[in-house]
């Protein structure tokens, strides 16, 4: 399973969007260098409030450009980085990956997929109705979270737009992604 990196971004503050930039550096065990969410322990404010000693399973947020196109058809004009992702990808269905998939990116960086980003009310503050657009139901009525995936950095490296992306699923049995 292969794809490519469309855009990368980071933000040193706990804002909503992550402005695209020419490259980002991933640091093993921490996340994106210079990003407010980098660290061994949780950095998302709601999780820090609950327990600041939790491990940071949300070091890197990935979102696929195909969803940006789908959202555009539904009236949401969004650009890479707008919903806070660090890495925007194309050609790989991120939401279909099993938990613990290894993502090989750029010049040798490796991420381990930890789970789904849970859409939150900040999406509606950014664009009214966006949170609902990133939630759906499957045929059995189960909630589907469509706001991208989260990962931790196993091996650091530099990522740039245009870099390759390859997914290496873990050995079976595969565990589905859940929110983290």
Shape: globular
Q: Order of strands in the sheet with the most strands? A: 1-6-5-11-8-7-13
Low-confidence spans: none
Order of helices and strands: EEEEHEHEEEHHEEEEE
Domain MOSC: 19-168
Protein name: MOSC domain-containing protein
Structure explained in plain terms:
- The chain contains 4 helices and 13 strands.
- It is α+β, with helices and mostly antiparallel strands and 180 residues long.
- Helix content is 13%, strand content 32%.
- The mean pLDDT is 96.
- The chain has helices at residues 45-50, 65-73, 122-126, 130-133, and strands spanning 2-9, 20-21, 24-27, 31-32, 60-64, 87-90, 102-105, 109-116, 135-137, 143-145, 149-155, 157-159, 164-168.
- Strands 1-6-5-11-8-7-13 form a 7-stranded mixed beta barrel.
């Amino acid at each position: 399973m292969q794809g490519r990196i469309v855009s990368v971004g980071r933000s040193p503050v706990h804002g909503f969007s992550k402005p695209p930039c020419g490259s980002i550096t991933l640091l093993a065990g921490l996340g994106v260098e210079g990003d407010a969410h980098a660290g061994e322990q949780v950095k998302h404010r709601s999780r820090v409030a609950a327990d600041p000693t939790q491990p940071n399973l949300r070091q890197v947020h990935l979102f696929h450009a195909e969803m940006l196109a789908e959202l555009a058809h539904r009236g949401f004009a969004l650009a890479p980085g707008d919903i806070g992702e660090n890495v925007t990808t194309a050609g790989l269905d991120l939401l279909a990956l099993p938990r613990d998939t290894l993502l090989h990116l750029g010049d040798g960086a490796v991420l381990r997929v930890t789970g789904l980003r849970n859409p939150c009310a900040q999406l509606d503050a950014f664009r009214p109705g966006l949170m609902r657009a990133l939630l759906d139901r499957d045929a059995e009525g189960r909630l589907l979270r469509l706001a991208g995936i989260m990962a931790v950095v196993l091996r650091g490296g530099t990522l740039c737009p245009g870099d390759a992306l390859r997914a290496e699923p873990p050995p079976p049995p595969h565990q589905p992604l859940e929110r983290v």
